[in-house]
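Chains adopt folds. We examine one example:
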Amino acid sequence: MISHFKRSFLAFGSGLSLAFAGSPSWALERLVLRMPSLETSISINLGDSHSVEELINGSPDLVELRRVSKGGVPSLLKKLFLAPLPLQTKDFLQAATKQPLLEQALAAATYFVDLKGVKPDTSGRMLTDAMTRAERNGQPNVLGFLRELPGEEASIDVSRVFDAANRLRTNLQEGFSLVAAGQPASVNSVLKKPLSGGWTREVLQLSVPHRTKPMRLISLVPAESNGLLVVITHGLWDEPESFEGWGEVLTEHGYSVLIPEHSGSSYRQQQLMLAGDRPPPGPEELRLRPLDVSELLNAVEQKRLLASHSLDISSVGVVGHSWGATTTLQLAGAVPTDRKLTTRCSDLKNPERNISWVLQCSWLSAIKQAGIADPRVKAVAAVSPPLRLLFDPRVRQLSAKVLLISGSRDWVVPSGPEAIRPMRETGAAELGHRLVLVEGGDHFNLSSARGEAQPALLGPLLLTWMNEQLNFRGSAFFSEAGWGDDRVRMIDVSGQL
């Protein structure tokens, strides 16, 4: 029982990013933790005490909890109430007011927290105002923040927290089952050899017409080129360096590799955003990211980039992670549509809903400008792409063959709704597209940074896919297997869908 209380309080602590509109004319009076399954609730009066000790001692529910938990729950609550407010959060909220990404995150939070007496608002202004007043009143902590919120009562329905957890388990379960029933790919020892390092690395700047500042990118050029080019595109709030390990494997086998930094949604952008100097990535980034890649290809084609190398720009591979993977699908010809975005984004109880929907739903206003296909892209490897709400289900118009890769434990972009069901419903496997599940893979452990001791986990998989789809007579092909790993099971589940 006590562990349930702990999880509930911690969930509340992380869910305080709920905003409500209006200038408060009164302070929040009560905090209520509702547990319908137990037919009980815990009520805490916020306005009747001057300290946390008085607050706890003044609540009969907490006095009883202190007795049965031997002080554990009230102690946890005290730590929560006295936790300092992150001042960076206030700066971020001030910069992010009325931005679609923030609005979608706050709208999702309303599923867990209800504030009586005020109208819901997802602008973020109410949070900023409450934080400012708490700081000004000498209480820059969670309790001070709560006291500055408007309304009569803030209530948290614990059952909804558990509902969300159960929904996540359900969205991962099909992937677990497919992995358990599948046969892992074999391991080709040749593809697992330590890398020689026989390539040239450069950090470059490229002026592009759709960005106000030059694009930063990493170039990896092999000592002996196979004449083919692969572009790697990073995810939200990440950077090119996180994926150099993938590029090193490809370059070791003759591919030239370019890894651009998407300046509107990179790690650097995140740092500026948290400091209050930059808003969250706007919907326009859905269009700008594929343009980044197309401009790289233009620069290579026009000899403004990699001018001394002879590369076949008519047949290019693109690899992406998370939002970068979504970008690869756009370049391959997947058509963005607003049909699911307009019907599902407001449904907070949808059984397929997952964290990636916050990002996907923020793209709605940019859909009509986001069809940025590039016919030069002939092979795509998309690792953990948010896609369920975004694309038209028809896949015959794609100019490239697509390899979807999903981790079986990816709780950010779960395999069920974002990979398995789209593959099954579109019949993509019958057209030569493939889905590989990585046992134990999550949203963060499949990338590979520069200079890692072992070749990147996904390196052989990416290499063999590019070899096969770009018709390079390399050391191995995807259909011949050999792209597996002896550290984790990697399974092509396409035939099981």
